[in-house]
Amino acid sequence: MGKIKTHKASAKRFTFTGTGKLKMGHPGHRHKTGLKTSKRMRSLRKASYVSKARTADLKRMLPYD
């Protein structure tokens, strides 16, 4: 049986924490920042965690991370 390929787009966007949770950055932080409020930009700066429902799918995409 061959190796499983890593989904490269997901590998660039998500990282595993030490406890096995998936950490992600918020989308929408780079472009059109002048239209967004300061409060919104501050909240987009912080990283967040992937929900448990999506974690199983992403673990399949990132087998060796």
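Above is the first protein from milestone M3; the second protein from the same milestone is given next.
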Amino acid sequence: MKVLHVIPGLSPSLGGPPQVALNLVRALRDCGVDAEIVATNYDGSGFLDVPLNQRVDYHWSDAPDASVPVWFLPYQPPALKEFIFSPALTKWLWNHIQEYDVLDNHYLFSYAPTCAATIARWKGVPYTVRTMGQLTSWALAQSRSKKQIYTALAERRNLQRAAAIHCTSPSEIEDVRNFGVKTPTITLPLGVNAPPIDPAAATKVRQHYNIPANTPIILFLSRLHYKKRPELLLKSLSQLQKSLPFHVILAGSGDANYISELQSLVETLGMADRVTFPGMVVGQDKDLLFQGADLFVLPSFSENFGIAVAEALIVGLPVVITPGIQIAPDIAAAEAGLVVEGEEDLLADAIRHLLASPERRQQMGKNGIKLAKEKYSWHTIAQNLIPAYQTIATQKKLPTNVGFHQPIEVQ
């Protein structure tokens, strides 16, 4: 069986979706599936330095010892944010799409998956769609008019005629149904890889960022974007600075103007000596941050999964998150962190409680490792996805909702 994953780009600037595609394809190949990726060379304001128009073994920063086969096609700038138009990709898909048994399209409201779905229907190749949290009410409210037009022209048809829609949680299924789409769904979480453990991580992080030895580190690691609400975290922490020691690391890239606003807010709150902006952190440096911090906080409006949250869990870092992160029920049930509404006082109280309770943080950390290993293993996810691919490849119908560890029966 040959499977093609289609995604607008693999640039780290696109956040979590590239990591999903790369790690899933790697796991599928380890399970014996001939899986590949096609993407553009988009890299934010520039271009990825990769060979074009040929199949390459692509290595990425978070897994330097691994590689997956990728076809990179040139995009045509200027690219509207995340639309990423590519005539070369169109031609490549038209010429090669019938070489694959199944397409797995990542993302909505973007040219590559839209184009792939359209050509797949024309050529008779079945495809699935990953909505990546883009059908939540919050996400649909962003650029609402443009998305309504795009939906009417292409996206609703793409979703309705897909062989299946891949969801990561029951709440994402609700989003699909609320959007008026009745296509069968496959419900599987996303995964996370356990990094090598560095017992000296806490010391190394404090030395690198000049943080006193006994000062707790609060980590925010994600895109610096208003969707993620780093400003809410900063305002909440301003309530604690007179009573508790802490240092905040806001790791991630983002729009330069927005980052300047965050830096100005830090100055206004009088927290300049308590906050570090290291920019995007990847690979071993990222692993070190997760292992060296004391608490991970992501007060996002909306996340279909939250890869960074799972990365915190797998190394035993307790988390404080908001209900908009769709794995929040798993975390609450496992007691691997605290789930609080996105309000300054509530977030501040949760952080205060955990900073003052090292024993509870330790227990939450153990619970988080157990949860991540049992439920967020890429290998397990790939093994559960393969039967769905096999059913789809034979042009047979999936059950309405296929869940995690649920046998897939052909109907």
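Note on the second protein: The first strand starts at residue 2 and ends at 9.
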